[in-house]
Amino acid sequence: MIELLLLAGEDLVDTVSDALMELDALSVSVEDADAGTEAEQALFGEPGLPPPKGGWGRSTLRALFPTEEAATEAATLLLAQPWASEVHVVAMQPVPDQDWVRLTQSQFHPVEITPEFWIVPTWHEPPAQARRVIRLDPGLAFGTGTHPTTRMCLRWIAQQAPALAPSWQRVLDYGCGSGILAIGAALHGAQAIDAVDIDPAAIESTQANAQANGVTLRAGPPELAQGRYPLVLANILATPLKLLAPLLCGHVAPGGHLVLAGILERQADELAEAYAPWCRLEVSDQEDGWILMTGRPGTPA
């Protein structure tokens, strides 16, 4: 297999991608040509903020072809197009044959939350000391346990469960992603769990992961969340968390707990300020520049 690398400006990326596929490329991927430099551009913003620029100023296109002859012919035909004067071939290089399934699996290992609580991909055996195990494979929805925000939420659940279990029969996982927090709560005693997300893929992923772990829950859009819950979990991002402050606090039962993640250390003060009318937030954990904030609505700052 041969990889053809090209450089193109923002206005030509779609045209070049389409042309490569018409020239029998097996696949085409697009990357920021300035990634890792000061000129790197973010394409994905946070909900609640103005959208970032629609495309990178310069893009690297990686096209795979079955043979060198096919790649050479495609490059020649593409560069002959009248619109291709600003398209440049960067390299043409062989791609070694690999067992891609095995390679992908090798990048995901069991994740320790506590010595007794682990996240384990299905192709691994759980550690001997694991008493509670979430079986989870990488998928379309966020939340595999490899990110600090997920680990901190699960660690909070594991540490607080002995004291909270008698009273936290209802749990809300707001922005559930893969459903990993909802599943973690179920493994620690929660009985009635609502997991909500605006992304249909996340809802589907949550349902599948819950079934794979023998967990019963309800998954659906945000409208599914009704009433108040002794525990509300939200691992999203700072801006939507600020916008959702009255809604999330309104879902917490009297004396209940609110657990928020997806927050950078430098965002702690602005989150605390946003929630101050309803709840006094405190930093309960931190890892790799991310923090976990918790509070009990009804105790304003």
Automatic annotation (TrEMBL):
| PANTHER family documented for this protein | ELECTRON TRANSFER FLAVOPROTEIN BETA SUBUNIT LYSINE METHYLTRANSFERASE
- Keywords noted in UniProt: Cytoplasm, Methyltransferase, Ribonucleoprotein, Ribosomal protein, S-adenosyl-L-methionine, Transferase
Q: Which reaction does it catalyse?
A: L-lysyl-[protein] + 3 S-adenosyl-L-methionine = N(6),N(6),N(6)-trimethyl-L-lysyl-[protein] + 3 S-adenosyl-L-homocysteine + 3 H(+)
Please describe what this protein does.
Methylates ribosomal protein L11.
NCBIfam families from the UniProt entry: prmA
List cellular component terms (GO): cytosol; ribosome
Single GO BP term? methylation
Domain of life of the organism in this record? Bacteria
| Protein's name according to its UniProt entry | Ribosomal protein L11 methyltransferase
Any Pfam family the entry gives: PrmA
This entry's Enzyme Commission designation comes to 2.1.1.-
